[in-house]
Amino acid sequence: MNAEVGSAAEVDRLDALHAVLDSGSVVKAKRMLNALHPAEMAHVLESLPPQQRKLVWSMVDDESEGEVLLYLNDDLREELLRDMAPARILAAAEGLETDDLADLVQDLPATITREVLNSLDEQRRERLETALAFPEDTAGGLMNTDTVTVRPEVTLDVVMRYLRRLKEGLPDLTDNLIVVNREGRYLGVLYLTDLLTNDPDDSVAEVMTLQVQPMLATLDARDVANRFAQLDLVSAPVVDEDGDVLGRITVDDVMDLIREEAEHQFLGQAGLSETEDMFAPVLLSARRRALWLGVNLLTAFLAAWVIGRFEATIQKVVALAVLMPVVASMGGIAGTQTLTLAIRGIATGHLSAKNMRWLLSKEMAVSVINSAVWALVVAVIAWVWFGSTNIALIIAAAITINLLVATLSGALLPLLLERLGIDPALAGGVILTTVTDVVGFLAFLGLATLFLL
């Protein structure tokens, strides 16, 4: 209930800001805008057409610009950065945490990146370079190098006094301290709850937890997200191959990753990117979408070519032209269901080559049942409609063949595409549609040619 109230209040606040912007009251709009969280400011910017964006962006306080940029989609962030003076970018980058700064720096021109690096003190520059050394889609690319480490031989009282002396305080979302040996190698974690509830004279070694496994810096980001979800982690240490602590990952970064993955799978089926700006310039959007329209056109011509091979059959039996879309559509739906399930399984780490055979057997069994049921339904409808037993039997057989092939393709395509280095979320739907159309038309018209002419 409280979450619903909070969500409604947030919507009302954003709607009120939009109303003030429409009224032209710049001073009031600026005051309301800067009272929002940076994520909410980013939401407002993404919801505005280009001309209004420039006005609203100019209203954002200087100290908030860096955080707002981080919450924006990639397209809009790049657009705003292009129009910002170097000095303004440097000011926006100042004060950002190392992992956030690493995300921002990757979108900056090389000259500005050098200026940002030169503006940092030696310790912070080393931390940033460590974060930038790993690909963005790995644990090393996600981690924040700002960590608090303690040694196992010291007492809890010493740790408490050490924490009180920290000038910058604990990093955000710190639920534990990382325990390391003299060489900086990972040993375990000391939860803050254990630090506060145990005898101050106890040593760290006596109360530390050994069960928390660190994440290798080279671990895939998708596997990082899965481990956070499975183990309900708030933060996790990141180490190199020698076990040296490099940093830590926090749940807020993982939540961003999960959201981006969900958007990627949803938009990818339409050939769109999760980073695409809804209000991007017309020519830019048209150019991006043209590629997938072109690919789809090629696949459509392939299906049309198959139909053309049976032109004589269609001319003699007009009912076939009426029923063809039914065969293709049924196969498309069945294949899409399996394809979506398989892509989700790969994304969550549940599906691999090891258990693919079991999933395929299960999906094929489901397809056999559904094809038998719906082939019978369509056959009855076709018989009542056209009064032909032969047409009814042919469309029943064609639907059965197409559903089985569609299910097989939907299950195998994601793993095959991933092995080839092609994103299944982007390419899977296009290829599957081609398979179901071609197989459906070929089966239906081929059987009709054999048995009706």
Write down how many β-strands occur, each being a DSSP E stretch of 2 or more residues. Answer: 6
Q: Give the CATH level 1 class of the largest domain.
A: Mainly Alpha
Helix content: 55-70%
What overall geometry do the principal axes of the alpha carbons give? globular
* Rg, alpha carbons: 29 Å
SS-derived structural category: mainly alpha
Number of domains: 3
Task: Summarize the topology.
Elements: H1 2-23, H2 26-34, H3 38-46, H4 50-59, H5 62-71, H6 74-82, H7 86-93, H8 98-105, H9 110-119, H10 122-132, H11 139-142, E1 149-150, H12 156-164, E2 176-180, E3 186-191, H13 192-197, H14 204-207, E4 215-216, H15 221-231, E5 235-239, E6 245-250, H16 251-268, H17 282-308, H18 311-316, H19 319-348, H20 356-386, H21 389-419, H22 424-452
Parallel strand pairs: 1-2, 4-5
Antiparallel strand pairs: 2-3, 5-6
Helix pairs in contact: 1-2, 3-5, 5-7, 7-9, 8-10, 15-16, 17-22, 19-20, 19-21, 19-22, 20-21, 21-22
Describe the structure.
- This protein has helices at residues 2-23, 26-34, 38-46, 50-59, 62-71, 74-82, 86-93, 98-105, 110-119, 122-132, 139-142, 156-164, 192-197, 204-207, 221-231, 251-268, 282-308, 311-316, 319-348, 356-386, 389-419, 424-452; strands spanning 149-150, 176-180, 186-191, 215-216, 235-239, 245-250.
- The chain is mainly α.
- It folds into three domains: 2-142, Alpha Horseshoe (MgtE N-terminal fold); 149-268, CBS-domain (Roll); 282-452, Orthogonal Bundle (Tetracycline Repressor, domain 2).
- The strands form two sheets. It has a three-stranded mixed beta sheet with strand order 1-2-3. A three-stranded mixed beta sheet has the order 4-5-6.
- Strand 2 and strand 3 (186-191) form a beta hairpin.
- The N and C termini lie far apart (67 Å).
